[in-house]
Amino acid sequence: MRYAKVRLSVAVVICLGLPAGIHAAGVDHLQQTLETDKGVYFLGEQVHITYVLSNPTDSSVSIWIPGGYWLHLWVLDDGVPIIDLAEGLGIASFYKETLAPGEVRQVDRSWDMIEWDWINGVRIPVDPGVYEICACVNSTSGYPAPIQKPITIIPEPVVLMYLLAWALPCRRKRRILRFDR
What would the pLDDT profile of 22-66 be if each residue is shown by its tens digit? Predict the structure, then answer.
């Protein structure tokens, strides 16, 4: 009988989506920043990411986490996550993260430009292009809203030198042919 009551109360909490006060006062006043050490990287460089969540209010602010990690730092390629640099407890039950007045939480991560192939379960290097770093607090209220920062990955300088070395002689030959006519 006791187990039936526990299961019923868990079901009620899940159906109701936790307490009504999940969007507590101050949650939407949390400040967050997402920074990288630079905006353009050569292929193979480490991308250093810093996420800061701060509570500038005069009261404590609690965020209900539905299990797993309290912060997801995704790298997106055309809106599709290719890797998650998560932060948190990694537990499978609801818990609460509380920020005291003036408290600042900083998460520093590095990304080695390797993407996770979710289907085959292997790590593969990314291609040059534009990617988005997305920080998302995993809260039941949806606050604070996710933030994004674009980064650009370009080929290594050696590859650029080879391309220029190949392209310059081709251009000269075309000019010579044009003048011979």
Answer: 344 456 788 999 999 999 999 989 999 999 999 998 999 888 887
Give me the DSSP letters along 71-102: EEEEEEETTEEEEE--BS--BSS-EEEEE-TT
Cα–Cα distance for residue pair 113/54, rounded to 1 Å = 28
Which has more confidence, 56 or 18? 56
pTM of the model: 0.69
Bridge pairing between strands 104-111 and 47-54: antiparallel
Between CA 81 and CA 76 the distance in angstroms is 4
- Cα–Cα distances (Å) from 116 to 48, 83, 109, 147, in that order, read 18, 6, 16, 22
CA–CA dist 92, 102 (Å, integer): 29
DSSP state at residue 8: H
Whole-angstrom distance, CA of residue 35 vs CA of residue 149: 7
Tally of residues, the chain: 181
For the record, the structure tokens of 28 come out as 């939407």
Distances (CA, A) of 123 to 71, 72, 129, 168: 22, 19, 18, 36
Q: Computed from CA positions of residues 161, 163, 164, 165, in that sequence, does the dihedral angle turn out positive or negative? A: positive
